[in-house]
Fold these 2 entries.
Entry 1:
Amino acid sequence: MSTVTDSSTPHARPAVSAARAWAAQSPTSPLAPVSIDRREPLADDVVIDILYCGVCHSDLHQVRDEWGISAYPLVPGHEIVGRVSRVGAAVTKVTVGDIAAVGCLVDACLHCESCRDGLEQYCTVGGTQTYNSPDAILGGSTYGGYSERITVKEAFTLKVPAGLDLAATAPLLCAGITTYSPLRHWNVGPGQKVGIIGLGGLGHMGVKFARAFGAQVVLFTTSPAKVADGLRLGAHEVVVSSRPEEMAAHAGSFDFLLDAVSASHDINAYLMLLKRDGTLTLVGAPEQPMPVAAFPLIMGRRSFAGSGIGGIKETQEMLEFCAAHGITSDIEVIRIDQINDAYERMLRGDVRYRFVIDMASIAR
Ligand code: NAP
Ligand code: ZN
């Protein structure tokens, strides 16, 4: 086990203690065990002993520096569920022993227009991501949930409603909120025809939420083997996108399309499926830019949009909605030492539909 040190430590660095984690040391190195510093709780901090951490395709993109923004060592993981083990003196939201969660954000300015609107993910000053973000408190980078423990500001801690399966709840913290938020923002509901593109971690949550919101749901997949699952998860119809006749049957018919694909694909083929004034919203974040032709947008006044995770208030609302409607993620639980193989399987589309790391395995 190697020890992570950093040289950019600010002066008033709080006390720290060592925590086990798994990190990538470069874009080409596999994840391996490291020891990281976690800060001792400040007055408004919560310490969470991590029980489960979901595996998002964004983890893989950043471990391999596919977005060109990665700092190493990189400890991924932003779908965190655990038990509160310590709290700072000013904390009121949770107490020791509570089950709590952390998603993609651990800080934001809380004063800008976006933060005041509860949209901390769009903080104009620049929020702090759970991992691979400059750590204003300790220096260096923030470290994510592939770890035994995390220290988080109370304001960025979520409460997990009773009754939810904890492992299957972890992916709600990113895959869940990233699909819930745009479906809410674009008012998806009864009387609308909605398409979800790509049946992965995000896509399968998109199908569940769009169905729960009362829309007519069509899933688009490149994988014929996922058709039956798509229907089981809540789609009224599944289209295999490589079959032109199946795509053509839906031309000009959708109110809203949510694109959750992790790699480059033909956006224009989907824009043509929108009705007049329809919107295609991208949540998938492929490495390469994708060409968008003018005429599919001009003809029919169609919109092409994007959406990023969701704010803290909406994430809490989403968790309550999931508890009330019995919604969680379909998961395969893995040990931390299976993570490198899990990335290869995720790239092959061989995950039904989210890997979740049982963090007890980090101590073995
Ligand atoms: P995932 O589980 O790997 O799912 C991606 C799905 O995309 C695959 O299951 C596959 O579905 C489809 N796909 C993969 N390669 C494809 C290709 N070459 N052509 C067409 N379809 C392809 O990934 P995820 O964790 O859901 O994440 C999806 C994307 O969202 C990633 O880029 C991730 O970084 C991004 N993301 C964005 C946000 C945000 O805030 N906007 C948040 C989290 C994640 P089928 O087999 O059904 O075709
Ligand atoms: Zn994610």
Entry 2:
Amino acid sequence: MRRISIFGSTGSIGQSTIDLIHRDREAYEVVALTGGANIELLAHDARQLGAKVAVTAYEDKLPALKDALAGSGVHAAAGEHALIEAADRPADWIMSAIVGSAGLAPGLHALKHGTTLALANKESLVTAGPLLMSEAQAHGTRILPVDSEHSAVFQGLVGEERSEVERVIITASGGPFRDWSLEQLAGATLAQACKHPSWDMGQRITIDSASMFNKALEIIETHEYFGFAGDMIEVLVHPGSYVHALVGFKDGALMAHLGAPDMRHAIGYALHWPERRNLPVARLDLAQVGTLRFEPPDEVRFPALRLARDVMEIGGLAGAVFNAAKEAALDMFIAQEIGFLDMARIVEVVLNEMSSATSLGNAALTLDTVLEADKEARARARACHARS
Ligand code: NAD
Ligand code: MG
């Protein structure tokens, strides 16, 4: 039996992972499940899967979790330390599906134990890519990408020489505001930003898709995970989300990965890698799809894409600053304290402030320096809003 843990089990990716586990229940022993405020769901899944431990990120939720797990034999725990302890428990495969940079520390711990890390938490690669990749190498283990575009690129590279790759194209649905003018974007509401045209995801990544911050994070994720230079990575807007990514080779060939927009494909690929197994995803009927549309991205209306290039150029702690400023700006947009376009404006201000005040690019990358930069960037983002 394979021992598995799911970090962020109550979220969109976590639930899709659990769906796949249920379909082949006897093959897995569930070690740890972790969640946040949704205690009912966390306890329900932990009982049903017979997990050894269930962890809520919030300490004040521990009494409720203990109550919900009474008599089940599942150990209840809470807080950041408990998340680390859960990552330290021996497992063969861990799904990293916490949202935000909170997913970094548990992922790093899991790698130290040689556990295979299925990585949905793109923020870890953006904030501390070199740290994560070197940790995996040092402990002889693997990070398997779960973001759909990165899983697609990963699959496109099977059996290929990296040195023969000329470019990588990741697609973007364009989100709900693909056709909106700058003026319209300025007035975009929270409810409008939460409606994704093709993917069903958690609230934060859904809004990041509308602002294209999600794609900005994914450009950096591609750079950090595969090691391709920034100028080899392109973004193509593709409404419909059938083509997830394309790999271009030096003979001009483009290999595309197509599939229905269902994250269980990328999750299942990482779960069964290096094998392919039957997955419960819809088969694409291309005759019915009819036409595949592509258009170039617009970096004026969606400045996050331009900022991602700056981040790769600066390097070092710039990714941690970019991601944390974005997370803080997103919090403020969700709280309806700032407008839609203010998110990119604030992130740019913080990135500029911190790259001129400190030597972001040359800073040593450790968990401590990353967490420090993360904290400062969040504080600066809030201060930037308070000033305006
Ligand atoms: P979600 O909001 O649905 O779920 C997030 C999970 O993280 C929940 O279990 C929540 O309880 C937990 N969590 C939130 N804050 C936490 C904290 N501070 N500490 C510990 N746990 C915390 O998010 P999601 O859509 O499932 O996305 C999860 C990750 O996967 C993100 O990094 C996202 O970018 C990435 N991803 C998601 C999709 C998708 O289709 N949903 C696709 C590609 C990548
Ligand atoms: Mg993606």
